[in-house]
Amino acid sequence: MTKESGNHQYVNYPMFKGLQKPLEFMGFQGRYITWAAATVGGGILSFIIVYCILGFVAGLIVLAVTLCIGAALIFFKQRKGLHTKKEEHGIFIYAHTHKL
Q1: Backbone angles phi, psi at 22, to 5 degrees
Q2: What are the protein's UniProt keywords (predicted)?
Q3: With DSSP H G I counted as helix, E B as strand and the rest as coil, what are the percentages for the chain, rounded to 5?
């Protein structure tokens, strides 16, 4: 694929235009993919443990509760954006003990 302009030939290369977009998988973006994987893993592990101790129905209930709580936390955090940080509200006074 060349483009001729006068006596010069320029080679065209395909450009990947998705470099500035965050990684996304099934609606989860960026770091929340890891959170979703940890939620699913924790839900399965808790299901296995409760199933062995209390039975199948109790295990299903724990699995459903774990997945629902994890999904809700992920969606609420993701709604704020990928770069959420703790927001400290209040008045902060920084006292200087040493003067130059």
Answers
A1: -70, 155
A2: Membrane, Transmembrane, Transmembrane helix
A3: 45, 10, 40
62's tokens: 């724990």
Give long-range contacts, CB 8 A cutoff, 24+ apart: 69-76.
70/35, 70/36, 70/38, 70/39, 70/40, 70/42, 70/43, 71/36, 71/39, 73/35, 74/28, 74/32, 74/35, 74/36, 74/39
Q: What is the pLDDT of residues 15-65, one digit of tens each?
A: 666 666 667 767 677 777 888 889 999 999 999 999 999 999 999 999 999
Kindly state the DSSP code that residue 23 receives in the 8-state scheme. Answer: P
d(C-alpha 10, C-alpha 7), whole Å:
10
Tokens of 95: 């006292």
Q: Mean pLDDT, to the nearest integer, of 69-91? A: 76
In this structure, the dihedral spanned by the alpha carbons of residues 63, 43, 66 and 50, taken in order and rounded to 10 degrees, is 50
